[in-house]
Amino acid sequence: MDKNRKKRTLGILRLTVLNGAFLLLCLVALVPVLYALTLSFSGSGAALSSRFSFWPTQPTLENYRAILFDEPFLLWFRNSVILSVGTVFFSMLCAVPAAYAFSRWRFAGRRFTLKLLLVLNAFPQILSMFALFRVLKTIGLLNTHGGLILIYAGSMCVFALWNMKGYFDTIPVEIEEASRIDGASDRQMILRIVLPLAKPAIVVTCVMVLITVWNEYLFATTFLLDSTSYSLAGGLYQLQSNDYSRSWPLFSAAAVLVSLPILAVFFKIQKYMVSGLTAGGVKG
Amino acid sequence: MRKKPWLYSAPALLLILIVVVFPIGYTAYISLTNMNLYHWADFRVIGLSNYARALFKFDSGFLGALFTTLLWTVVNMALQLFCGFWIALGLNAKGLRLRRLYKTLLMLPWAMPAYVSILLWRVGIFNTEFGLLNQWLTALGLPKYSILDNTVTAFLACLALNLWMALPFMIATIDGALQSVDASLYESASLDGAGFFQKVRFITVPGIRAIIAPAAVMTTFITFKQFDIVYLLTQQKGYMTGANLNTVITYAYQNAFVSNNYGLSSAVSMLLFVLIILFSLATNRSLREE
């Protein structure tokens, strides 16, 4: 009897310690985000006050008003939408039929091409950035959204191809054979049978490409030089590199606005993220 | 039938050829020339001397950057695997009611756009005037310290930030792997009188190793290639801090876009490409054998 009670007390103690540790850990994970959130709702003096609290002392929406209407935030937002949607459209348009071909048919050069794509995927695009810069400059696509979409679409295409191929591999061929016996043409079969079946995978891949492009800053800040073509990355970058005391609360408001849509999307597809990220890299 | 697959994949392969393959080839070509700011148009082929400069001239800084990168990768992976494992194990402890809440909150850094997180840390945590770290130092009566100005502390700052950003993925992966360990193994081990650490060592670790391996390899590559953190924290254009911290990727970038040594930068890029290919071939083989 006594031994049982001791065991139970020990168990409760263990859980208390564990809960304490996790609360602390979550706090550490959230501090930078909470700080920015608090600051974004605070008056302009708050950033310099040495007394820090996780609750704005004089709550105000002034920073949000200023970032939305005094800064070209809406223009940056529009540019980011153009870049991400354009990239999703072009990369998927190219990748899906290719992924289908590589998944369904066996042909000479197939294995080699797939291997090559894996190797290319390992190459960090930053390393060829200067070459890309020179090429774009030469053909006059520097500082255009079209040029950047082309670059994004190319690198995302490799990822999307592997991701979609992995999914097509899991759709049984028998379904397609059945429809072929019913006399469906290639085009009909792909449009009516394969694509509807692959819809969830297509959606998830699109969202992953979208998030990647939305979060990309290096190419966006190097290749878009004109402040009217800036994406959110370029705009935020500029905000934080300016005089801090004026723009730091503005920056925190902008950071909240940029992150919110991504957070919403991320938690919606989170369960696919772990498997999706690793699937492309290893399956041969 | 023989043309059809190529017809379907032509747009994708063409796009990849133009945007990914051609620039790599072009980089290889530039690496053999003396292209720099003064020779933007009238450069000429000078053979392998850029490679020789990167590899054999110690003042070129490449070997130092390579060493920093290896140290960075090893320390990061060790910390991530260690912390990720214990946190995931803690999340799976029996009777932890708030598990789902903790899991969701811990995933937040992963969901944030990376550059936003880094810039938030740069100003909100590390900055001498607005940074929380210095506000806390002041509150404790200590003098302010600009963490990003010193090479060693800047390295530690980058390490902390990378851990913050990368741990969620590791936790999620290990947490997923833990679900696949057969629970009855623990019960029979308990009956045999095994303690907690023995169970972890002889059941949990062997049980999840094969599942973690691909994710760990992928994270190793990502860590090796990490650019954003070091660049945005310490080397923004016009805002270089005093820290002399370079990974191989920031080294290549600096030489291309700051000091305009295009030839040298391209040579380094090609060396890294070969290194990464060799490494990925080696790990691919060992993963398959496991």
Explain what this protein looks like in three dimensions.
The complex is a heterodimer of chains A (284) and B (290). Helix content of chain A is 78%, strand content 0%. Chain A is mostly helical and 284 residues long. Chain A folds into two domains: 2-60; 71-282, MetI-like fold. Chain A is flat, with a radius of gyration of 25 Å. Chain B is mainly alpha-helical and 290 residues long. Chain B has a domain at 98-255: Orthogonal Bundle (MetI-like fold). Chain B has twelve helices and no strands. Chain B has helices spanning 4-30, 49-56, 62-91, 99-111, 114-126, 132-139, 151-179, 183-191, 196-224, 228-234, 248-257, 262-289. The model of chain B has no long low-confidence stretch (mean pLDDT 88). At the A-B interface, α1, α3, α4, α5 and α6 of A face α1, α3, α4, α5 and α6 of B.
How do you describe this structure in short?
Chain A: Pfam families: BPD_transp_1. By secondary structure, chain A is mostly helical. Chain A has helices at 2-40, 62-70, 73-104, 110-122, 129-138, 145-168, 173-181, 186-215, 218-223, 232-241, 244-282.
Itemize the secondary structure elements and their pairings.
The complex is a heterodimer of chains A (284) and B (290).
Chain A: H1 2-40, H2 62-70, H3 73-104, H4 110-122, H5 129-138, H6 145-168, H7 173-181, H8 186-215, H9 218-223, H10 232-241, H11 244-282
Chain B: H1 4-30, H2 49-56, H3 62-91, H4 99-111, H5 114-126, H6 132-139, H7 151-179, H8 183-191, H9 196-224, H10 228-234, H11 248-257, H12 262-289
Helix pairs in contact in B: 1-12, 2-12, 3-7, 3-9, 4-7, 5-10, 7-9, 7-10, 11-12
